[in-house]
Amino acid sequence: MKHTITMMLFALLVLAGCSGSQQSAQQAAAQAERPQLNPIEQATSGHIKMEGLFTVFQDTTSGSTKMMITEDQIGKEFIYWGHTVDGVPQVGHFRGNYRDNKVFSIQRYFDRIEFVVENTRFHFDEDNPLSRAADANISRAVLFSAKIDTEHEGQMLINSDPLFLTEALHQVKPSPFPGLPPGAMLTLGNLSRDKTKFRSINSYPMNTAVQVEYVYDNPAPLNRGGMHVTDARSITIVYQHTFIEMPDNNFVPRRDDARVGYFSQQVNDQTALGVTPWADVINRWHLEPKDPEAEISEPVEPITWWIENTTPHELRPIIKEATLEWNRAFEAAGFRNAIAVKVQPDTADWDAGDIRYNVLRWTSSPTPPFGGYGPSFTNPRTGQILGADIMLEYVFLRNAANNERLFSENVIDYFLDMGLPGLKGDEHGHTHEHGVFCSAGHFIQMSNMFGFAALQALDFDDLDREQMVHEALVYLIMHELGHTFGLNHNMAASFMLDPDQVHDRSLTEQMGLSGSVMDYPAINVAHDRSQQGQFYTTTTGPYDIWAIEYGYSRGLDDPEAEEARLNAILERSTEPELIFGNDADDMRSPGKAIDPRIMIGAMSNDPIAYSETRVQLVHDMLDNLLDRYSVENESYQALFNAFMSSMGQINTAMGVTARFIGGVYIDRGFVGQPGAGEPYTPVSRADQKRAMELLGSRLFAPDAFYESHEVYNHLMRQRRGFSNPFAGEDPRIHDLVLNMQRNTLAHIMHPNTTRRITDTRLYGNEYSLVEMMDDLTNAIFQADLRTNVNTFRQNLQVLYVTNLAAALANERNQYDNFTQTAALHSLQRIKTMMNNRSRGNAETRAHTAHILRIVDDALEG
Questions:
Q1: What is the Cβ-side half-sphere exposure of residue 848, based on CA atoms within 13 angstroms?
Q2: Residue 657 and residue 693: Cα distance in Å, rounded?
Q3: Given this model, what pLDDT does residue 396 score?
Q4: What are the Cα distances from residue 119, in Å, to 123, 136, 140, 279, 800?
Q5: How far apart are CA 736 and CA 648, in angstroms?
Q6: Is-contact 727 412, C-beta < 8 A?
Q7: Are 364 and 403 in contact (CB under 8 A)?
Q8: What pLDDT digit, counting tens, does each position of 16-37 carry?
Q9: Where are the domains of the chain?
Q10: Rg (Cα) of the chain, in Å, rounded?
């Protein structure tokens, strides 16, 4: 029995072994038939594959990524473009903010892959032996290095999480400003490795785009930001990194020239021998004619703009109208229908982050950093513009002030500065390239706020208001489009028509209210509705047409003939309507720049006369404001806005006027150029005196501002919760007036201005510093030497004497000897005036004693 059982067990084991052998053989056969995975495929098993310029794999479980580099990409150059998808303006990030544009190459170092940023700022003639030392003392930046995890047949796989989920490619978190006390600004905390993650990854044949949510943690923030910051302990910045194939086409770079305003790629020619060894090239699109033989041809590929589906429907026709208006300028350059406009369907599966689309975008942010913004990105090697967007903020159309500024202690400055940064001086709380930053939308919004007030007070009707908004929107869009075509600001363009011509609609609709849409001009409002012309320019002006001709007209194959052709275009720069000056030339801040024609907030070729009419317009409005803005069951907030924006217009007009004192006209014409004048011509003595007289009568005089007015005690902001200022909500009329006077004096008495007044006497200035200071002293003191001094004048006189004392003391060593001499002379004159003045009432006597105390302290110091 035992033997039988043993034999049966043995048989079962044999059968099982045979069965197992058969199964193993079958499995081996099946394995042989199944395709073998290569190392790359094995390493990316369980990943989503996104093929394109760079192939990216994302793990479906953890979300981590791997990036494939191919052998033919080693040593090759690509373009990097980075922009903010969404952010917090207080830390320098906002939707659509273009932040980085550079050339990088991918290098291999043994078993590692490196991303290296190339320096594109220098040029070497390849035929010059010096080109062999082209890398001498020029540092390339190795931004990222990663070990090759897997390699197979010319394909290399790296872990790309550290490339994208850190700040390796771009510094997202801004550097702290030195000297600021803790808590002075909202700051980002430390980058969270756990919370930072991919939002989207898209790869196309010509570009790869990766969006990342960068999360910054700060457990105990000292500054918690505004309403738009949900919780300052955790702030998210959504940023997109885009890698772009280097263009391989027949695009020909075009040289930059100081007489016309294009954004450019600045390149030093290290092998040139001239005094300006620059090989700068302008930024422009690649337009090619369909018919090269035709004088005017449609382009092979137009510059196509898409109106984003976030755009309000009623605005879309206006946006299209404004965009297509630029075709007028391009036709003069030889291209018909160079610009095309389409509307993004509501069902579109692409967004504005896709570089294949140039998009006109709309948002409505709680604290918008702009009203309009038109950036572009380029090939830094050539200046070819590769793509652009325009960001438009709905706040631009709203007749409302910035909520957070409205209840702040500096609400007065907000209105006086027209909502713009940098008007108080040379330093402000952010860094940027001023040529790229655009505040036109803010400027127009504040101008419109005044425009609404003026139309309400001067019996204009709803059609006029609609016309103003329509023209403002057309102008803003055309302005931002100009930036995307490569044009920078032209802050001199308003200096074209005389003060009467600017109200001739039949003229301005044809040639423009300004020479260019790239200016920040004053809103054009007439006293009389029957005389009203355009509020804003709505067509390309002579400068725009000429600038586009230079940038986009078809070049010649022969280099010498092409240079002659470009010079022929540039020789026209001396024509009056082609006057040009960009942000570096404008005089918006006290002491900045020298040419008073290059100034924001100006209008006409006689800005002094236009400024006088603007101040008179505001005075005429004031008597009607309370009546027109007293609406049943509404607060006085609209009245407050109307009054403050009107005061902002006086501030701007007086600032425009003050720039003529010590001003110098610039002519950038080249030697021998037809129509070119002297490079520097001081403003005539007559115009400097005229400017001083206007300031004396409209800003400094005892009756320049109402000592009492019914509107003053109605200037109440509508309370919101606990948002009233700490110092109180009462309207500070004296502070308002004093700030306007301070702003103007800050320029006239700026060390740059006073130094220039003396220096320019060597080449034509006939208005000496002592004479200017005598006129200024007379304007501030003479009128009330025999009468009581009102409180506005008391404030002004104390301010002026304090400024003189500071100039004489010269503790910061800013003022030259001539300014100190003039300050001493003025203080001595004022002392004599005070000692000889009539006694006046008790308030005037106390004020006189105060002035004498400041003067004596200054003279004894």
A1: 21
A2: 10
A3: 66
A4: 10, 12, 6, 14, 51
A5: 10
A6: no
A7: no
A8: 555 555 556 566 555 556 678 8
A9: 42-176+184-245, 686-701+733-861
A10: 33
